[in-house]
Design brief:
Elements (H helix, E strand, L loop, with lengths): L1 H19 L7 H8 L5 H36 L11 H16 L2 H7 L4 H20 L7 H25 L2 H11 L8 H20 L1 H7 L3 H6 L4 H23 L5 H13 L6 H21 L7 H25 L1
Helix pairs in contact: 1-3, 1-14, 2-3, 3-9, 3-12, 3-13, 3-14, 4-6, 4-7, 4-8, 4-12, 6-7, 6-12, 9-12, 13-14, 14-15
């Protein structure tokens, strides 16, 4: 509880910092006055229209990805398992790119990139990809290792389809699609935040409500069945929550890499728990995404997509975890 409260305070501090810093700095007092409805016209433009939607989108995306990663790593009992592994992001990417390229020329692509069309198709692609992985992995039930292996194969095929579409696209279309594919919050608006907020408000409490059953399933299938937990039904429900949370975040900002992988592992080690705590993982994801996006906006002479920064942070951690697990297995 102490660590979770500290993570909440850190997330709030990062929200204020992200709103304050940028090309035009805004003081904390001015931010509070603007949020209370007493700021001047320039502060209202900067805070309410330019920065606050982007910051809220980043916070919600990080929260959704953190919780989704914790759910997947717990249900599979595998620290390397993330929603990316089972093809969720790959399906969303293929759906989004197909929608962009089929939708028309460069003007049409730019206009619908964060509108209702592309996010909806991306979410549908994520759901269909997961359904395919689950169906191919079913053998009288779904085992965690089989789900991961099938997900890697399906994800590779979907990524190949995305690459084919990019090769066949015009330069302007491919450029717009490539920016979306690395994960970016630069086009976030209130239209982006609202559906994401609705999804998080519904799905995160549902995930937290199932924490007790998740703790039992983490002990293994035999023990879970012994205490009366319907293992396959519970696993399907957890995967469904994971997919919906990931689809909501991908639809809002594209596939931001490594947040769902890194956040639960940081939360696990910070709290000293036996499995990734859901709420702490979500708050850790929020902090990681906000920190990465703030660096992407301010540390470079141009606006770098946040997905590039999270990949730079997460990839070395993945390598370290793989090396560490290999040493443990050989000792």
């Amino acid at each position: 509880m102490l660590v979770t409260c500290a993570a909440l305070l850190l997330a709030l501090a990062l929200v204020v910092t992200a709103i304050a810093v940028g090309g035009a700095r805004v003081g904390v007092v001015d931010i509070l006055r603007t949020l209370a409805g007493h700021g001047d016209a320039l502060d209202r433009l900067i805070v309410l229209q330019l920065r606050l939607p982007r910051v809220l989108a980043g916070a919600l995306v990080g929260l959704a990805l953190g919780v989704a990663g914790a759910l997947m790593q717990t249900v599979t009992r595998n620290p390397l398992a993330t929603p990316d592994v089972i093809g969720v992001s790959s399906g969303a990417s293929l759906g989004a790119v197909a929608a962009m390229l089929i939708g028309g020329g460069a003007e049409s692509v730019g206009g619908t990139l964060l509108g209702a069309g592309v996010p909806a198709v991306a979410a549908l692609g994520a759901i269909l990809a997961t359904a395919l992985v689950y169906g191919l992995g079913w053998r009288g039930g779904v085992q965690s290792y089989r789900l991961v292996l099938v997900g890697i194969g399906v994800g590779a095929m979907l990524d190949a389809g995305t690459s084919y579409l990019l090769v066949r696209a015009r330069v302007t279309q491919a450029t717009a699609a490539a920016e979306w594919l690395v994960g970016s919050l630069s086009g976030a608006s209130w239209d982006t935040v609202r559906p994401l907020l609705y999804g998080v408000v519904v799905l995160v409490p549902l995930a937290l409500a199932g924490s007790a059953a998740l703790a039992v399933s983490h002990l293994g299938d035999e023990i879970a069945q012994g205490v009366g937990l319907p293992v396959q039904l519970h696993r399907l429900a957890v995967i469904a929550l994971t997919v919906l949370l990931t689809a909501a975040s991908v639809a809002a900002a594209g596939p931001i890499g490594f947040v769902a992988f890194v956040a639960p592992q940081i939360a696990l080690r910070t709290a000293g728990a036996t499995r990734p705590p859901l709420l702490l993982s979500g708050l850790t994801g929020t902090c990681l995404t906000l920190l990465a996006d703030t660096l992407a906006r301010t540390a470079f002479p141009w606006d770098v997509p946040v997905g590039i920064v999270t990949t730079v942070i997460g990839a070395p951690y993945l390598i370290w975890l793989l090396v560490r697990n290999r040493k443990e297995m050989t000792t």
